[in-house]
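[audit] Reproducing an earlier prediction to check determinism. Same input, same settings, fresh worker. If the tokens differ from the archived copy the diff job will pick it up downstream; this log only records the rerun itself.
[audit] input (156 residues):
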Amino acid sequence: MVKEFFGTGDSAIRPDKPMTDRDVVIVLTEHPTEKKCLCVNNKKFGWIDFVMGGIEQGETAVEAAKREVLEETGYDDFESIEELPEIFYDNFFAAHKDVNRHITCHMVHGKLKSLSQVERDEKEKEIADVLWVNNDELPSKLSTEAHKYVLERVLG
């Protein structure tokens, strides 16, 4: 049985907005030496979550994960990265896009080899800050149940 989430409160589906389907990656990236995970803090909405983004046509989940982590955080020196064999669904109002979303979520787990980082695009800097969150603080810091589910599936 595939896990499915539904937004609540401000993220609840809005009947007056169109529904869009999208395949996405949610990327849990581990720090190379500390028990921390890479997160982004959306400046407009205050969300703290793992890197997440759409899978483009012809891209694998791992390719999308590497691209999204690089775009959103500047990190690209992976020691290991793999897609988990399980998917799940999330349904919510995406305030940042002003549409409802039904997304198929592909979980990707990576670990960085180093903290080597390239400069992020100015647009990405305006959208979110990059932060490392201690693993034991993640359950209380992550903004969405879907990302907490990824944490549970990847790190237990």
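[audit] rerun output stored. Observation attached for the diff report: The longest strand covers residues 78-94.
[audit] end
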